[in-house]
Amino acid sequence: MERRFGDRAEIAYYDISKPEMRSEHADVVDAIREAGLIYPVTLIGESVVSDGAVSYPAILRAVDTVLAEQGALSGQAE
User: Fold this and answer.
1) Phi-psi region of 6 (alpha: psi -120 to 50; beta: other; left: phi over 0)
2) Mean pLDDT on 15-33
3) For 59, what's the count of Cα atoms within 13 Å in the CB-facing half-sphere?
4) Is the model's pLDDT at 2 over the cut of 90?
């Protein structure tokens, strides 16, 4: 990930089997439960990329898309 995106993207892993993580991220845990998603759940920002399995290619595509959209938006502001 770092090789492809450098410092433009970062990975954060939250093991919600740990009580402190469940309480710290209770809003996300509740939203996942309400949506009926299956762990593991991969999010980019607040958007679900996948659930039930981790798909590295799907993550890379989603990060590419988000960064491209951010680049387009910052280009429009100039």
Assistant:
1) left
2) 94
3) 17
4) no
Q: Under a CB-based contact definition with an 8 Å cutoff, are residues 55 and 49 in contact?
A: yes
- 44, 55 contact by CB (below 8 A): no
For the chain, the structural domain boundaries read 2-77
Q: What is the pLDDT of residues 27-74, one digit of tens each?
A: 999 999 999 999 999 999 888 999 999 999 999 999 999 999 888 776
Residue 40, both tokens: 């593991």
Quick one: three-class SS letters along 28-56?
HHHHHHHHCCCCCEEEECCEEEEECCCCH
pLDDT at residue 72 in the model: 74
Say how far apart CA 48 and CA 10 lie, in whole Å: 16
